[in-house]
Amino acid sequence: MIVNETNTIKKNNELTFFLNGEKKVIKDPNPELTTLQYIRSIGLTGSKLGCGEGGCGACTVMISHRNDSDGRIVHRAVNSCLYPLCQLDGMALVTIEGLGNVRDGLHPVQERIAEGYGSQCGFCTPGIIMALYAYLRSNPNANQKEIEHNFDGNLCRCTGYRPILDAAKSFAIDKTTDEQDEDGDVKIPTIAKIEDDDTKTDSEPGICPSSGKPCNCKQKTSHIPSKPLELKSEPIFPPFLMDYKKESLVFQGDRVTWHTPTSLNEILTIKKTHSNAKIVVGNTEIGIETKFRNVVYPTIISPVRVPELNSIQKQQDGILVGSSVTLTELKSFLLGEIKSDGASDDQKTKVGTFKAIVSQLKWFAGNQIRNAASIGGNLVTASPISDLNPVLLAAGAILTMVSQDESGTIVERKVPIGSFFLKYRIVDIKPEEILQSVFIPYTRPLEFVQAYKQSRRREDDIAIVSCCFRILFENFENNQFKVRECVLAYGGMNVKAVTCQNTEQFLIGSIWDRNQLDEIYKKLEVDLPLAQGAPGGMIEYRRSLTTSFFFKYFLTVSKQLYEISKNPSYSLSDKELSVTAPYSRPLSKGQQEYQTQPEKHPITQPVIHQSADKQVTGEALYVDDIKIKSLYTCFVQSTKAHAKILSIDASRALKAPGVKAFYSAKDVPGENNCGPVIKDDEVFASDIAIFHGAPIGCIVAETHQQALEASKMVQIEYEELPAIVTIEDAIAKKSFFPFTHVIKDGDIVKGFEESDHIIEGEFKCGAQEHFYLEPNGSLVVPGEGKEMTIYASTQNPTKTQGIVASVLGVPQNQVVCKLKRLGGGFGGKETRSIFSTCVAAVAAYHQREPVRIILDRDTDMATTGTRHPFIAKYKVGVTKDGLIKALDLELYADAGYSYDISVGVLDRAIFHSENAYKIPNVNVVGRLCKTNLPSNTAFRGYGGPQAMIIVENWVEKISKVLNIESHIIRAKNFYKEGELTHYLQAVENNQMQRVWDTILEKSNYLERINKVNDFNEKNRWKKRGIAVIPTKFGMSFTVKTLNQAGALVHCYTDGTVLVTHGGTEMGQGLNTKMIQIAARAFGIPVKDVFISETSTDKVANTTPTAASVSSDLNGMAVLDACQNILKRLEPLKEKNPNMTFKQLCIEAFVQRVNLSSNGFYATPNVGYVFKDGGVGEGTPFNYFNFGAACSEVEIDVLTGDHTVLRSDVILDVGDSLNPTIDIGQVEGAFVQGMGWSCTEEVVTFPTGYLFTRGPSTYKIPGFNDVPLEFNVSLLNDAPNPKAIHSSKGVGEPPLFLGSSVYFAIRQAITAARKETNLNDWFDLPSPATCERIRTSCLDSFIYQFTNNKN
């Protein structure tokens, strides 16, 4: 019993904190506000809302506080989208605006990210910079590896991560400082190995890609100056807060009251009065519930000022951890204990559980979440897939609950963790109790603790299965060991974390013996049942992990017992040793090679991204950053995949606070039917809801949150109809759009007759979510009369303008669509972005006020479609020496519920159905499947990657059948110069063989095959694979009309130039390249050319920024406009040959010469028309890109985990307009293709509900998924005569090369299967997820839980 405190507590209702060095005092703050909502509401828009669930890191800020126990200043990166505003009292908050800015100068972290080309679209950049900055403030002596592993809470979809990591690692203390110049300043080394024109001597200075200025660059890549950040000049922690009195706080909101007590007694008093109160430390769980489930908790208690809940105490037999201790604090303490274990053998034995906890915390969420979340919150949440709970369960942790009795006396209750988890997310805590502490015992001599976890992505991902095993041994006769205690704890196998009683009882008292393993596996099968259809799916995979993990544990413990006893029965074979080594990722590295031609500068010059400085400072504006006061609107969505709408009742929603209106199909002033090509779509579903999530109406309110909450209040009555939610179901039920395209070439019958082998099969490649970091958003501002100005995150301003005009019933000349930039697009904002804009436009039309729509991440993913999944049925004829003679191919693409632009996607797949191979006899048929899913749309590569992965799959099958290595098959069948494709276009300027020879040489592929085989011979449970893959990618829109562009150029009398063009900047560097083109045309520095925005009132009738030809099209249009002006200036220049450009512009103005011009370009001789007979007319492509990639991977056979050891990529981009920007495009596309083919699995439930609707469930590659060695080269001396300045487009062609990782994985699986004498062909659908990898490596662990014994 603890005596009650008697002093009176003073309650304060003022929130005091510092924001970027400025004191802020807020009286009665709203307890429902997050830090992000607050800082954006006061105009600090650098921090972005990317997902709202703490999974992308775009909202990262740094918070600092003084630690009461030791006076330390603690700096933490946290997710401001979750971190409560009311939690900031007594803290210092730093946002991206607090570092540096364009006007006053960039902070070193910002500068190095900008100069290192670490920002493309820029939306994720402020969050990444703040994560790095906070880490460096906390860890000024960090080494490169520590810095590289700090980014697990951030995502980037554009860069491929390499340039960000290189810039970040330059701050490490173990980075060798480059040679300094005479002034003592560090020279800025090159971002790449540059191959200059041969006429340039070594003594002449080159152009530094980082700075764009002459310097003596090194030959090897060492991108950024390696000078550590000088923290002495960083802002100090506010002195005011050093002595700040942390009082008890109470903040009363409209719906929620926030309490911050300062004593244990006080918190228990509040809990006794408000038994339903939620206790919040980091808000990482409650924040999700309130945002995505619209849950309101009337009472919130913050325990961060209660000393008993925030301390870690060493005790005789363990440690006592306060329930509010953050996971980062816990990890730091445990690492300190582990590092001090060298003091004595006794100390070494005590930290086994600590090591297991640290091993799990390494993969537990992201850094920002660990910095905020607490151990108590993790326990009380009781997630069945928790990483930590199985470890605490195995360790035998003891939990202390405290409460007040009727007299106010504090009562303690001890709860063994084994009885704490009662059922799904229900634990043994009484309403008036709180969890005070967690006691974690030390381990004892001969006690072995190991924890394991498997997830879809290694970092920042929830577990599929997690577990922890603890066994205490005792010595037995003859150096054998008997099990004295045993706990086997699992997560992900039940509605709660569980132990395995049957298996444990079997083991206790037994001798540790390999011969018992089969019986142990049988016991585990009984202890851990998982019925078909159980939540989470992956039944066979999850069950196999239970035994695979125990086998890992058995080998690991046996190895340690052998080291103790030298008993040969515990020794492992050399082939098994790799199982016992914990995963450790080495430091990544890479090299980038390209050619620059000084005589053509600024063309071919590595000029920094035009907006890089604005992006790294958070000053770059996106749609939601525009400071125009507006209303907000949110969809009211269908909860059925296919249903007739019987009634809609919005009465309850209209009574909600802040709500202005509800609109549906009847409120559309113009046409409700719309579509980018065919009007088979609706703004609002009028009669039939045709997919789960379809907008049936919209709510307009004063704030986004009000609109979101009210949208859930609209009552809709349905009559359900049969739904088709898979491509397989659509094919079986013949649910197709009335559309078929066919290409025939040669004589298919003759081709098969000439073949020695006919190979048939089927292949499926899955969907891919775009996952642009900036969700779809628009701001629609009514003007005079019918005028509307649209600020939209779109790749297609003209189509947006046209469709909105149609929906509103106004002429197009009354609607203007404009934008500065997109936070990523990848095709996902080519057409599907338009529909949310239409919803905002309808609301703005009726409200006569600006209306903003920003889709929440889950809404965006559930409504805007994905890359098209494909199923292919193929029949290939090949000779015995590997020459391909015939291809008969059926392609089925899942279009979703409407046409959208699926015809173009399918056409590109048909065109790329031979990849880089000449096949004399071809028959390709393409069909579009109609399903009750969101309409699928453009995605980087259109249908090209899908078609090419199908091709390479059957090439691998040919290799298997003929027993000829696949790289030989590929090389034998490459197109030769001038040969015709199956659509009768000559392959000209063919660089394929040269690219192929170069990749084989640079990657050292042939020698590495032998090394891979040697590794596989020596390792049973780790296998490697290596693959080399080519690509030939056609460049143009396949629709002739779209191959045009316009531009508008103004020259001013100060010698500066303003360029406007029809393309949109979305991170690909389009504006930068256009600036380079104009600068070269006028002979002026790039700094004198500016691009402000894309707008339909400046350049009309534009085509979408897509198909990787925006530089080709808009560049030629810009050049045309420049040449028009130059032609007018010629007479003046002849009279005044020594005039500067500025003087010439002044003279032109004096002489009344027009200094403005529009430009136009249309790609000649392109366009293709399909014919029913299969022989079309025309030429679909202007030219081809050629590329190749070689990747090597290592898989964990027991779990399906994989690591990309090395990737070499080479791409033909002609004479690159900007090589460092193009390198970034190659790297980003490659990693995106790697994700598409390996980790990014879109999961839809049978009801049509999309499960993968945010970063918690959908896994794009993270920072530590990139190849450990990542080498990228641009092919030199390969000018392209058919595009601007002999260049080529670059955005889409490299994406397919990411599939080289998929094919390397396939090779590794093949090696694993050989261990069980399985040498036959096996199908491996794409993506090659960890589940598919593991279940394809057929062995006893898999056979135990499947019927497949073959």
Automatic annotation (TrEMBL):
Active site: 1292
SMART domains, per the entry: Ald_Xan_dh_C (SM01008), CO_deh_flav_C (SM01092)
Essential cofactor(s): [2Fe-2S] cluster; Mo-molybdopterin; FAD
Start and end residues of each FAD-binding PCMH-type domain: 251-445
Record-annotated membrane-spanning stretches: none
Residues engaged in binding [2Fe-2S] cluster 1: 51, 56, 59, 81
InterPro entries: 2Fe-2S-bd, 2Fe-2S-bd_dom_sf, 2Fe-2S_ferredoxin-like_sf, 2Fe-2S_ferredoxin-type, 2Fe2S_fd_BS, Ald_Oxase/Xan_DH_a/b, Ald_Oxase/Xan_DH_a/b_sf, Ald_Oxase/xanthine_DH-like
Primary localization: other
Residues reported to bind Mo-molybdopterin: 795, 826, 940, 1107
Keywords per UniProt: 2Fe-2S, FAD, Flavoprotein, Iron, Iron-sulfur, Metal-binding, Molybdenum, NAD, Oxidoreductase, Peroxisome
Positions annotated to bind substrate: 830, 908, 1038
Annotated localization: Peroxisome
Residues binding FAD, per UniProt: 279-286, 364, 374-378, 387, 435, 453
Cofactor note: Binds 2 [2Fe-2S] clusters.
Highest taxon in the source lineage: Eukaryota
GO cellular component term of the entry, any: peroxisome
Pfam family of the protein (one): Ald_Xan_dh_C
Family per similarity comment: Belongs to the xanthine dehydrogenase family.
Protein name as it appears in the record: xanthine dehydrogenase
Organism (species): Dictyostelium purpureum (Slime mold)
